[in-house]
Design brief:
Helices cover 21% and strands 30% of the residues. The chain has 198 residues and is an alpha+beta fold. The protein is globular.
Length: 198
């Protein structure tokens, strides 16, 4: 009888040990942390969408995109599709302005292939590089549908343009919220980094 019990013990003990090890491995795997999701962008510069079918060309009038404080800057843009386009500027001061639409062009509907200039030819206003020295970011966001990207209640006149009276991070959150229901193919962006020197 004792031999039978001893034999039975050595028969089921390895199985028990294997079960414990398997359970431990599964538990450890279950407790392993999931890979962290990339942080949501908090700057307009980091907001991108490579899947958009709209192509936006955004340029400035100097090849090196370098301007001294007080220099005039001319922007041009065009798209390959009829769309709605909003042009933002994040200055070195941290302030965010909407450059398009503006006092001269109050509708943000743009036509495919048409070159738009800021300021327009013959306009009574100019856009000047503002200090301090650093990098200005100009970001164009285009949508096939009319998607309000900024709450009008947060806009205040700033000459021919409008200043967004909120921190850049909050503006980006608002834009992401507005674009969330929009198909990735139906919106696109482009940007230009401008160097401001004293």
């Amino acid at each position: 009888m004792r031999r039978l019990n001893s034999f039975g013990f050595w028969l089921w003990f390895p199985l028990l040990l294997l079960g414990i090890l398997t359970w431990g491995a599964a538990t450890a795997q279950g407790q392993a942390k999931e890979p962290e999701k990339p942080a949501a962008p908090d700057r307009l510069k980091d907001l991108d969408n490579p899947k958009g079918e709209i192509k936006v060309e955004l340029t400035v009038d100097r090849e090196d995109a370098t301007y001294k404080v007080g220099d005039q800057i001319v922007f041009t843009f065009r798209t390959n599709k009829d769309c709605r386009l909003t042009l933002f500027n994040v200055g070195t001061s941290g302030k965010v302005h909407v450059l398009f639409p503006n006092e001269h062009h109050k509708d943000n509907l743009v036509k495919a292939g048409t070159v738009y200039r800021i300021p327009p030819e013959g306009a009574k206003f100019v856009f000047k590089a503002q200090g301090p020295a650093g990098e200005d970011v100009v970001k164009a966001i285009a949508t096939l549908e009319n998607v309000p990207l900024v709450n009008e209640a947060n806009l205040k006149p700033a000459g021919p343009f409008q200043e967004v009276g909120k921190p850049e991070k909050d503006i980006v959150i608002g834009i992401q919220s507005a674009l969330k229901p929009v198909d990735f193919k139906k919106w696109a962006e482009a940007e230009k980094v401008i160097k401001i020197v004293e």
